[in-house]
Amino acid sequence: MARLAAVVLIALLSACNARPDSPFLEIPHPSTQAMEPVVREQIATSRKALEEAMKRPDDEASLARAFGDLGLTYHAYDLTAPAAACYANARQLQPRETLWPYAEGRLRLEASGELSGAESDFRSVLELDSDDLSARLSLGRTLLDLRRPDEAAAEFRRVLDQDPESAAAYDGLGRTAVDDGDFEEAVGLFRKALELQPEASRVYYRLGQALRRAGRKEDAREALTHQGPTEVIFRDELQEALSRKARGVSAALRWGGVAMLAGDLDGATQAFRHALSLAPDDAATRHSLGGVLAQKGDLTSAIEQYRRAAELEPENATHPYNLGQLLLRTGQLDEAEAELRRALVLEPALTDAHLTLASIFEQRRDYVAALAEYDRVLAAEPANLQARTWRGVAFARMGENERALEELLELVEAAPTFPQARLQLGILLARLGRREEARRELQEVLSLDPPARVRDNARGALEALDGRPVALDGADLQTLKESAAARPGDAEAQRALAEALARSGDFGAAAAAYHAAVEAGRTDAPTRLAEATALVLAREYRQARSRLEEGLRHLPSDLGLRHALARLLAAAPDPAARDPRRSLELAQAVHRSLGTLDSAETLAMALAANGRFPDAARLQRQILDAAAALGNPALLGQLRTNLDRYQTGQPAANPFRK
Fold this sequence. Notes:
Blueprint: H1 2-18, H2 37-54, H3 60-76, H4 80-93, H5 99-111, H6 115-128, H7 133-145, H8 149-162, H9 167-180, H10 183-196, H11 202-213, H12 217-224, H13 237-245, H14 248-261, H15 265-278, H16 283-295, H17 299-312, H18 318-329, H19 333-346, H20 351-363, H21 367-380, H22 385-397, H23 401-414, H24 419-431, H25 435-447, H26 452-465, H27 474-486, H28 491-504, H29 507-519, H30 525-537, H31 541-554, H32 559-571, H33 580-594, H34 597-609, H35 613-628, H36 633-647
């Protein structure tokens, strides 16, 4: 059907161009019976206006407007064949009006990809108005698609002569430079486009490819971490007219989607809310609105929309799955687990839901349950590298180092170019004291051109092997700072900067960046815990306590936050940050839930903080006996230090291990 519509469109447009003095083209009006009532009414009104104008053929201006208005109405709903006939008739009546040939060119590209005809239409516009930047940019892009980069570059330069701040022109010139093999020139042009339109995340992909071809692999990796679907946009009166024409739920959803791709989250929100006002019980509309709200960082409102979508479409696994993901981001682990399980009842083969459940269990330190989820994934997808990697890591976290080593070695042998597996193998080898083997694995990770986060973790592990503080390359850190400064409301940009600052040892600045991430919407427990940890390392103990308490007001059942606060209240070096009695209450509850060596150690700290030194020493000896099997000399040394303190009537030296 789409192919037939494209053929009809080409025939209509060709007929108009071949015989400009012919009578009006017949409009192939479509049936509107299946359309929303508001759309049917709108089309009927435009058709009625054309019928009235046809009764006054001598009033060519009014008749042209009527044809054009109906064409825009059809175009707004992707009814391309009738829109083409309307535009052709309007163009015949108003041969000096630029909108009609421009609209015809756009229709050719949208419906059939007919590049040569679109080129002719855009040139017709420029013959009438050489200052029409939309037509010139569209012509330049069409020439690029026709593999005529020199002509395209000339058009983009003409745009810059009129508008030196045109991001689209710089992007176009960057693409022509790539075609010419001048990759360094392309890099500069793409960077200029991003400077003018930083939300155009698709340009990062082209920038990364240009950097790679210029031999700058590190810079290429950094650029590619920012890539996304949003293209460079420019002001387009036709697009604005079409968006104003759109009525009904489907049209609002379509134009909301267009706005999202253009990076206009406010416009997308407005479109989706309009759709919701027309159809409050439409699950797809609520799902779309939830998605854009999540991107804006309004997770509470996004969760509300996903909940309602799940109620309206209880058989659609997408809704509880996405709801579970957002609940996890906000630290609501129990609720997230329930939604993910609901998604799996509806769609048992939903691999990502199993992996997310495993992540929840890992946060609870329930590694047995996490392993069960990884096993479910691997039963369905034996070659799932992510599940195999994290299965090995789970064994290591359980203290089963030999089993973990066996799993990761087998995986690396089967998939030697999968960097995440080699990274985890290198980290495990380092923990086992096999430093040279660890070094070789981590260096191999860096040779694989891994994603930025894997690369940075491998660098950090190598730094730790050398006994030096982990630090990012200065240029990388500066890039992250610039990115965070340019996008203060982007929680992921703030968190990426925070992690880099923490690795560099600037814990005060890292804490500030983590807090910015929380303020921007990363309200999950791990981010809050990372902020508090950075504050402790910066010796801001009272502020760390305040942040943990704030986190628990939002996530009162989170064991990680409760555990960290219990330690801080028991043994903070700053007496003003301590609260022994509350520490003991928290530590007892956490240990009942977790029952791990870490939680037992926290309970011993709390007992000592309350003056119960014999009880603390007795528990610490039990912890030492259990920890001896792990074979970690550094851990045993720190545990013995606190045991000595308890036996001499002193509280723990520090709440956190180095």
